[in-house]
Amino acid sequence: MSIFFTYLELKMGLDCGGKMGQFILVIINTVFLLMGLGLFIPGIVLQTNIDFVSDEIKPVLDQVSVTGIALGDVVKNLGIGFIIVGVFVFLVAVLGLMGACCKSKCLLTIYAIIVLLILLSQIVVVILWFTMQNQLDSVVRDELSTSLKNNFREDSLNGTNQLSNGWNYIFLTLKCCGVNAVTAGNAGDFANTPNWTKGSKKIPTSCCVGVTASNYTAPPTCTDNVAAGTYYTSGCYDALINKFDTSKYSSVFLGVGVTIIIIEILAMLASICICRGQED
């Protein structure tokens, strides 16, 4: 009986390490290949969405740091990051296909190690995202508020203060006012901008509906009275976050993420099976 089970185990190992393992790995890496190409699409979309980060706006975003990296650089290069990840996934898939087709133990070992590292990094990123998301939101909002308070000095697009110009361009481009939403009749965040000699104004001209860079004027009903319907009601923090809002796709991302993890585990098992089959 023990001889029968030993034979059966050896036979299954050979089958797994042979055509079946090879077939599974080819299918999996074909999917990876398509996924790598697919990451180019969100990368291009993100690059399109961040076209608002002009040379005038970037100095303001650079006042905020995310884990030691300037927010302006993070936003500006987010799409490029997706494209780079897409290229990496594509190359890993090619490595897996070569290893499977050639049944190269060396290539398959390298492939399995890379996939394992990717899997572990995904788990770490997910844990950090869920544990630090609220903290990150709070830090970014607070640093933006501090930047507005300390650096807003002029109601102008081409004044002597670069950061003031940047804030005004942000208000115009994102159609927002202040870091937090301004309510009718109130100055909002601009009540705490001691370096701005505002006179009778409560909010800058750039916060008013209909104002453009070429026609930078607004009536007192907006700048002085902050009358409802004359100014942008959204805060710039929320407007910035909405540029990258993926909440409506959260279920899709969750499903894709779980699928990727399952595929990665299968890829590692298939590569191990082929290596063991080669040994046998």
TrEMBL record:
Keywords: Membrane, Transmembrane, Transmembrane helix
Topology term for the membrane: Multi-pass membrane protein
Keyword Membrane among UniProt keywords: yes
Gene Ontology CC annotations of this record: membrane
Transmembrane segments: 21-45, 78-98, 110-132, 252-275
Subcellular location: Membrane
UniProt record similarity statement: Belongs to the tetraspanin (TM4SF) family.
Full protein name: Tetraspanin
Species whose genome carries this gene: Magallana gigas
Organism lineage string: Eukaryota, Metazoa, Spiralia, Lophotrochozoa, Mollusca
